[in-house]
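dumping this here so i dont lose it
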């Protein structure tokens, strides 16, 4: 599993994201355990020259956090435009499409996927994991809001214990988990 350092996560400089964000700028200052943006920035610095998928763009704040390491490329997906595409950062690409319908994804370079999709009921998340399994992808998945509802908790609890880690203390108050997906 990934080793996390709360002091290093807390110390992440998020000023670049606050300047570019269209909404929720104050959330970038929130401490780990309240908001997950500093965690996302920290995780982006654990590898280089990889692709990160942000599934559930909304206003783009997660993608901004994940773009902290400029050596990585972030592709952010939403099924409706909610304003994020007006944010310009050289290592972020905004797409208004279900990622499962994007045949341009360089799957061999994708190291990390953030799943943060409404309505957070565990069903859509399960469908997405089934898709990733079907295409044979392996890597690290961050799941947001794992404690937001009983259905999300049930989904989280259904995942193999040895492949997951509850990292809510470092992430979002409504629950953050890491899943080592299809890794041997």
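and the seq i came up w/
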């Amino acid at each position: 599993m990934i080793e996390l350092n709360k002091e290093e996560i807390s110390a992440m400089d998020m000023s670049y994201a606050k300047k570019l964000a269209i909404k929720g700028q104050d959330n970038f200052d929130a401490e780990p355990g309240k908001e997950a943006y500093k965690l996302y920035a920290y995780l982006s610095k654990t590898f280089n020259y990889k692709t990160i998928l942000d599934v559930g763009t909304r206003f783009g704040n997660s993608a901004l956090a994940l773009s902290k390491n400029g050596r990585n490329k972030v592709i952010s997906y939403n099924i409706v435009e909610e304003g994020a595409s007006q944010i310009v950062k050289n290592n972020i690409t905004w797409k208004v499409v279900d990622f499962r319908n994007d045949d341009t994804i360089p799957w061999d370079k994708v190291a990390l996927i953030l799943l943060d999709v409404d309505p957070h009921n565990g069903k859509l998340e399960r469908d997405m994991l089934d898709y990733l399994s079907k295409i044979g992808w392996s890597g690290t998945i961050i799941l947001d809001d794992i404690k937001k509802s009983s259905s999300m908790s049930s989904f989280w609890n259904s995942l193999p214990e040895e492949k997951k880690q509850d990292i809510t203390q470092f992430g979002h108050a409504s629950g953050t988990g890491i899943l080592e997906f299809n890794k041997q």
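The longest strand covers residues 73-78.
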